[in-house]
Amino acid sequence: RPRSHTVTTTSSSFTANLSASSSTLAYDREFLRTVPGLLMVTEIVLGLLVWTLIAGTEYFLYPAFGWVMFVAVFYWVLTVFFLIIYMTMTYTRIPQVPWTMVGLCFNGSAFVLYLIAAIVDASSVTEDLDNHNYNSWAASSFFAFVVTSCYAGNTYFSFISWRSRTLQ
């Protein structure tokens, strides 16, 4: 005897919203014209300079430079990640995440760890270790302090943004 096959399909509001919201990619060109955007680009460029100056040497023989490399590469990758999030306005699509708090924690931790790394970098640079690597390590130390000041600036702007959101 023939069977009747009935198929019922339902669609959730989550998938409808996801397909509607992901159909167009937003791009915020104006972000790079703001002070936090310029600081972020500076952090990326100079952070890349810090870790490439160290990576071109025999840094692995000295544990202090390994720490500086870790901090520089780790925060370089995360800063690129956050730049992409801000440029594509992904933060508007994920309103459950407290982005002002995330930005404050990220920039604050980057400032503190980069400051420690810059101090370690500067205190580890001596001509006694290796003359061949001295100039690269000295330059990386200088740029580490510049990147630290950029993260300090972004921490300040993140704090102002966080503070204005909590007062509302």
TrEMBL record:
It is a multi-pass membrane protein. PROSITE patterns: MARVEL. One of its GO terms (cellular component) is membrane. Pfam families: MARVEL. Residues 31-163 form the MARVEL domain. It comes from the Eukaryota. The keyword Mitochondrion does not apply. GO terms for molecular function: structural constituent of myelin sheath. Coiled coil: none annotated. One of its GO terms (biological process) is myelination. Keywords: Membrane, Transmembrane, Transmembrane helix. InterPro entries: MAL, Marvel, MARVEL-CKLF_proteins. It is found in: Membrane. The chain crosses the membrane at residues 31-54, 60-85, 97-117, 137-159. This is CKLF8 protein. The lineage of its organism: Eukaryota, Metazoa, Chordata, Craniata, Vertebrata.
